[in-house]
Write a structure and sequence with these properties.
Length: about 130
């Protein structure tokens, strides 16, 4: 078991939970209550739930990568690429539209998960380090 990747997976699962439990009432529900067309409400919900699905799938991918070496680099690479893209979007939109990073702090967790995953993908399993010593 790779503890770095397990930590990344746990943080990713926590982020998914926060997205659903806190973000739903704070973001998704008010957007649906806004006076916008039904088609836009469909897209709001599709994008919201697609994000939930991506977060959940990548959480499972990190958990899988923490336990199994097979395909570890590919799994971690896909998750890190997506999470770095999310971080960049939160940083960019936060700075451009509200002039601060602190109204959209989600970039912090996506950078942290990415860092944990990258360290985990490059770390040697503990038992191999003991044999090499």
């Amino acid at each position: 078991m790779n503890l770095w990747l397990l930590s990344a997976a746990a943080l990713s699962f926590l982020t998914t939970g926060i997205h659903v439990l806190a973000g739903g009432p704070d973001v998704h529900d008010p957007l649906l209550a806004a006076d916008i067309s039904p088609v836009l409400k469909v897209y709001v919900s599709l994008l919201w739930h697609a994000t939930t699905a991506v977060l959940a799938v990548y959480s499972v991918a990190l958990l899988w990568a923490s336990a199994a070496h097979r395909h570890r680099q590919a799994l971690v690479g896909a998750v890190v690429a997506q999470y770095l893209a999310y971080a960049g979007l939160f940083i960019g939109y936060g700075l451009v539209y509200v002039g601060t990073l602190w109204q959209t702090p989600q970039w912090i967790v996506f950078l942290l998960i990415s860092a944990l995953a990258l360290v985990g993908s490059r770390s040697t399993p503990l038992k191999l380090r003991k044999l090499a010593a």
